[in-house]
Design goal:
674 residues; 24 strands; Capsule_polysaccharide_synth; Rossmann fold; alpha/beta; 7-stranded mixed β-sheet; elongated; Capsular polysaccharide biosynthesis protein; single chain
Length: 674
């Protein structure tokens, strides 16, 4: 007889924690209930958040009902920005207290005392510390990485860094400090570093600055660097002052002298200069011991997309991916005149350090707002001229787009962003073209590109990932087999990228002239097959016309591909096929294709790995379909290959069908005007 697993049950004490119930359930392997909508006898304990009201309530309930209490808090590597907008990379679960309460017991204190130094532990911790430092990662990561000069710091003048905290926060009182402690910290810095400037780093979530208020009361001169990633500030400082901020520990990672005016988890361990008495002495510990206890033993990490437990190394990679992609959007983005579907599709791609995008119905209004607030305009595709005198970018579908067609309202998982010409617009250089022409492509990058190519091929991933298996035609042995992928003739990629041959019928005829004895398969574009777009006149020179089957299967079958500008040409290149090009797509002119037209500005000869690195790794933006958060191309390829079915309600299906019908009509009207 099999017995069902009995999971513990915990009651959360606030609606905010209830919203995190899925994460809590995974981390605890438990069922999560909401107090007071459950009885004390039905739960094994209570969960609260830090020393907030929910945490204090959980403590009271635990005492009253003789149950354990679990205290949750943000991890030391939390997320891109403060707040609950994004899923958290990490949490802290403490069964005794909480790490910032110096007067009480907590699990972290015990972990530091009990952590034994081993070669494996040391190597792992040092590697994680190095990754954090090299990639400028912190608890929050939405501040731009820039130089001290750009942040307004005086050039060449030494300084000490004083770290602010949120007024009234439990981390201050828990560190046995108070608001006046910040004033004493300033006086100490002024006395002991008389020739250094005092640089005050304000807290990103604080409305009022304790340090600025104290400095003004004391009449002390100071500088406040503009919003920036904290690592350059830390690394160039002569010393760092803090009450109990996590930046103090990051300063220790950077090898800095750290003056602690409160009692925090890393103070009083022989690592810091301490100015706060503790009730009892602590054992000395190394930086590696404290890091391993705090970041690896004490913190719990969840996969950003699948919300399953992962190790710190995975969380660090995902944190870097989110930060790096979002930091490419330097200004706040404004859009105008987009359809509701495109606004929703674009939203997760265009959030950056300046904040979430502003999307309005009128394009002129969007331009005015962007100009007024120092933002940038984003437009979709090449159909609209960019406004003068204001930063602007164009977005277009990426190369590993989705599981389904855009015209069928499948949301994109990949977009390309360009500041002038989209990658298919051969009238000028796109950012992708500049990358292929000038990027250095170190060995690590080309190796990554080769692994990505191999995974794409092995997992059978393409742009749209639709279609079925194929029934291959019977072709005599030795006869050349050529695939001709059809295109939507009114598509911008033909209008702006194929100046001579502009129809599918002309392409097939040109291919027949070049290869009179070859077996030609013309594969209709899926937008045309589905009735969404027009493919023009049916070609007459092909041996067979096919409408079904996934394009990757036809690429595997053929010996070569002939195309105007289709992405199928690129997909054939990475699969080792010969490709003839009759237009000027982004992958032509680099020595990898048989070019029917000259592209004189493309002089560099590149490898397939270099082309793939630029096209699939450096150029696009990626969003994971499960989380709507930035991801790597490797993560997206794996998710698409899994072919998971996401449950959809009947109402959502109906709404989707209505919008799909409207979109079909809109696409046909647009095509008729081009």
């Amino acid at each position: 007889m099999e017995f069902a697993e009995v999971r513990p049950r915990y009651a959360v004490t606030s609606w905010g924690l209830w919203e995190l119930r899925s994460d809590l359930a995974v981390l605890l392997g438990a069922e999560i209930l909401l107090w007071p909508f459950c009885s004390a006898s039905s739960v094994d304990g209570f969960i609260g958040w830090g020393r907030r009201p929910s945490g204090l309530k959980a403590q009271r309930l635990a005492v009253a009902h003789a149950k354990p209490v679990l205290t949750f808090e943000d991890g030391f590597l939390k997320s891109y920005a403060p707040g609950r907008g994004d899923p958290a990379h990490s949490y802290i679960i403490d069964r005794k207290g909480i790490y910032f309460d110096a007067a009480g017991d907590n699990d972290l204190k015990d972990l530091i005392d009990e952590t034994e130094t081993t070669l494996a532990m040391t190597a792992r911790s040092q590697a994680a510390i190095a990754f954090i430092r090299e990639n400028r990662l912190s608890k929050y990561n939405n501040s731009p990485i820039r130089s001290l000069a750009d942040a307004g710091m005086p050039y060449g003048k030494p300084y000490v860094l004083l770290v602010d905290q949120v007024a009234g926060d439990a981390s201050i009182s828990g560190a046995m400090a108070e608001d006046s402690t910040f004033g004493r910290m300033i006086e100490h810095a002024r006395q002991h570093y008389p020739h250094a400037a005092l640089a005050i780093r304000t807290h990103p979530a604080a409305k009022n600055s304790l340090l600025l208020e104290a400095a003004r009361k004391l009449g002390v001169d100071f500088v406040t660097p503009g919003r920036m990633n904290p690592w350059p500030l830390i690394e160039e400082a002569d010393a760092v002052y803090t009450v109990s901020s996590q930046l103090g520990f990051e300063a220790l990672m950077a090898g800095k002298i750290v003056h602690c005016f409160g009692a925090t988890y890393y103070s009083h361990r022989g690592l810091t200069q301490d100015y706060c008495a503790l009730p009892s002495a602590r054992k000395n510990a190394s930086l590696v011991q404290v890091f391993h206890a705090a970041y690896i033993g004490y913190s719990s990490y969840l996969d950003l997309h699948e919300r399953k437990p992962v190790e710190i190394e995975v969380a660090l990679q995902q944190m870097q991916t989110v930060r790096d992609q979002r930091n490419r959007i330097e200004r706040r983005v404004y859009t105008g005149g987009l359809s509701p579907w495109k606004r929703k599709a674009l939203q997760p791609f265009i959030q950056g350090p300046a904040g979430t995008p502003i999307q309005v119905r009128n394009f002129g209004r969007a331009v005015d707002l962007a100009r007024l607030h120092g933002g940038q305009i984003a437009v979709w595709g090449s159909g609209r001229a960019l406004p003068d005198g204001i930063p602007a970018v164009r977005f277009e579908d990426g190369f590993i787009r989705s599981r389904g067609l855009g015209a069928n309202l499948a949301f994109p998982c990949s977009l390309a962003m360009d500041d002038e010409h989209v990658y298919y617009d051969a009238r000028g250089e796109s950012r992708l073209e500049r990358l292929i022409a000038a990027h250095e492509f170190p060995d690590a990058l080309t190796l990554r590109a080769r692994k990505l190519i191999d995974t794409i091929v092995a997992r059978g991933v393409s742009k749209y990932n639709i279609g079925t298996d194929i029934e291959v035609p019977d072709v005599a042995p030795g006869r050349l087999r050529i695939l001709i992928p059809g295109q939507v003739e009114r598509d911008a990629s033909i209008r702006f990228g194929s100046p001579q041959i502009r129809t599918n019928r002309e392409l097939v005829a040109a291919t027949r002239n070049l290869y009179p004895d070859a077996f030609l398969v013309y594969k209709e574009h899926p937008d045309v097959t589905s009735g969404l777009r027009s493919g023009g006149e049916v070609p007459t020179d092909a041996d067979t016309i096919v409408r079904e089957g996934d394009i990757k299967h036809w690429i595997d079958w053929c010996d070569r591909v002939e195309t105007m500008t289709s992405l199928a040409g690129f997909e054939a290149l990475i699969r080792g096929k010969q490709v003839g090009v009759h237009g000027v797509p982004f992958y032509a002119g680099w020595g990898l294709t048989d070019d029917r037209l000259d592209v004189p500005r493309r002089k560099r000869r590149v490898t397939v790995e270099m082309l793939a690195a630029a096209t699939l790794i450096l150029y696009p933006f990626y969003i994971h379909p499960l989380s709507a958060m930035p991801c790597t191309p490797e993560e997206l390829v794996e998710e698409i290959a899994r072919k998971r079915i996401v449950p959809v309600s009947g109402f959502t299906r109906l709404k989707h069908a209505i919008f799909q019908s409207i979109n079909r009509t809109a696409v046909k009207i647009r095509d008729s005007r081009n």
